[in-house]
Amino acid sequence: MIKNNDFPVLEFDDDTDAIVNPFKWNMEPFSTDKLIITFFPDVIKNLLENNQLELERHFAGENPVDIYRFKNQPEIMITLGYAGCPACAGNLEVFAACGAKKVMFCGGGGVLEKNIEVGKLLVVEGAIRDEGFSYRYIEPSRYIFTDKKITKKITDYLEAHKISYFTGLTWTTDAMFRETKALVEKRKSEGAKIVEMEQAGCIAISQYRSFDYGAIIYGGDDVSQDEWDTRSWDKRKGIRYNLVMLCVELVKVI
């Protein structure tokens, strides 16, 4: 039943079925249930060039998606994420329909506090829902949170291996060019550490489809000042490769 509202994005329908539903498509299951979603095409390219990956599944269409399997650890898959909740989290629902049950996300995001260094790892505890996708899956709320048990498994591993990290919320936005000074300050006051475009949607899908999900985002560009500072965030090849390899271990323990 639809809960009517003056604003369409807040009209939540609790009907668990949908006209287009990937769980009705009878797709062939993946060979494993462990998946890494990364936003680092350079790392995927490196792994392919070094013959460390093999193709698990190709999804054709206007926006094709390739799922790879690690040759030396075939129980772990990896794919390149698409920007924004509809693309990234929408694909994630299809992956869940194919049997993905343990999912680790790794990417970079814009820091809302200047003292967050480039490469500092944020273990995502939740997101401010400043987008539209998640409202079709989970009733309207200002925040959405990751599973505390999964988050603790991640932080326990990081502490055991003496890997520096911090925890907190992200600000999930649909509008990358509307991160105004006033909004940055407001989201900071609400607890957000990093701005990104996927977490609210991915967390919503994990709750709706009941699978384990964790995310680590490294401090990238700086949007906390009057002028944008890229900090060459997308050129940090060592940080990006190491984060993917870290998620290879984490997806085994969540």
Measured distance between first and last alpha carbons = 34 Å
Strand order of the main beta sheet, please? 7-11-10-8-12
Number of strands: 12
Mean pLDDT: 96
Structural class: alpha/beta
Point out poorly predicted stretches.
Answer: none
Largest sheet: 5 strands, mixed, barrel
How much of the polypeptide forms β-strand, as a percent range? 25-35%
**Outline, from the CA principal axes?**
globular
Number of helices: 6
**Helical content, roughly?**
25-40%
Q: Radius of gyration over alpha carbons?
A: 18 Å
Encode the helix/strand succession as letters: EEEHEEEHEEEHEHEHEH
What does this structure look like?
The chain is 28% helix and 29% strand. The protein is of the alpha/beta class. It has a five-stranded mixed β-barrel with strand order 7-11-10-8-12, surrounded by four helices. Strands 1-2 form a two-stranded antiparallel sheet. Helix 2 (85-97) packs parallel to helix 5 (199-209). The longest helix has 17 residues, at 237-253. The protein is globular. The model has no long low-confidence stretch (mean pLDDT 96).
List the helices and strands and how they pair.
Blueprint: E1 2-3, E2 12-13, E3 34-38, H1 41-49, E4 53-59, E5 65-70, E6 76-80, H2 85-97, E7 102-111, E8 121-130, E9 143-145, H3 148-160, E10 166-173, H4 181-189, E11 192-196, H5 199-209, E12 212-222, H6 237-253
Parallel strand pairs: 3-6, 3-7, 7-12, 8-10, 10-11
Antiparallel strand pairs: 1-2, 4-5, 5-6, 7-11, 8-9, 8-12
